[in-house]
Specification:
mainly beta; seven-stranded mixed β-sheet; four-stranded antiparallel β-sheet; 51% strand
Amino acid sequence: QVQLVESGGGLVQAGGSLRLSCAASGRTFSSYIMGWFRQAPGKERERVASISTSGSTTDYINSVKGRFTIARDNAKNTVYLQMNSLKPEDTAVYFCAARPAMGYEYGHWGQGTQVTVSS
C-alpha cells in the first residue's frame, strides 16, 4: 500500500512556474510507475505526465511538452512536476497517482493540489 500527499500548488501569473511535489509513504515506491493527472472544472481528468520506476522513461500529453518536466527521487520517495511557462488553461486540480509496474490501473491517489494560472 502506498499513500500519496501532493504539495506545491498555488496561484501564479501566466508565464510563471510552479513545482509540484508528491511524497509517498511505504518502502515500495520504486516499484510503482508514477503519474500526474489534472482535472479542470467541467472537464474530464487527464493524465499530464508519467514516469517509469527508474525514472528513465517519461511521457507527456502534447499540450505540456516542452513546458512540464516529471522527475522522481526514489531515495526520497518523491515525484515532482516542474511546470514552466504556465498558461491559464493549465488551471486545474493536480493529482499524483501510482500504479504497479506490472499493473494496468492507477490505484493509489493523492488528495490533489490546486493550480491556478491568472492571465
